[in-house]
Specification:
about 250 residues; single chain; 10 strands; 8-stranded mixed sheet; alpha/beta
Amino acid sequence: MDIKKLTAQAEKLRQMTATSKSGTGRRWYDIKNQGATTQVYVYDMIGEWGVTAQDFVNELNAIGTPAIDLHINSEGGQVFDGIAIYNAIRNHPAKVTAYVDSLAASAASFIVQGADERVMEPNARMMIHDAQGVVMGDASAARALADLLDDTSENIASIYAERSGVEAADWRAAMQKDGGAGTWYGAQDAKDAGLIDRIAGEDVQNPGKPYTEEEKKRFRKTNNQLEVVPEAVPAEAPSWDFDLLSAVKEALK
């Protein structure tokens, strides 16, 4: 198996696809600096429109804020681009919170795993599956691609395993479920599986416990996160240095 040759062919194909779509002005991500927190949106197919993972990583590494909110609504994209983005997020010095706003499928699902905290909207979805690819050539080229796809899929399974504590073999089985169609997760399913830390709207201190209506009144939304509104602190009661018994005795003299 000539891995170098196959990956070189894959990169050449990726570049050809990117070039054919360049000049559209469209990007699959957007980055907005909002004070102490930078908002990053991945809202399209990763690696499309002539915009590469290198473009994304360069801009990500230039972020100097202490916190990053990473919003995901993507069907996935180029697997090696996804792995590069995952590693860049994982190694970034800021605290990165990933929010699955609607869909995190394929490569987008393991990009989420690079964040320090993973949050999913109650009605959002996540999907995982084996790496996929096509090859033109003889039987040996097809077998070599199959080996490369297996190796890549094992690598992806190890990413899920590291964050969830579930064995990589179990993740690989989920990725191959239904004849390779993979597995879909609702928010609660994703949390139970270890793909996310909490569902949006849950109590941060007690994940799994929804806020009560009374608690919700004490929160305001800031930078897409719930923040406690400080309660009014009552003035201290006056402190009396007073001996009641002695005072009564004095009055009765």
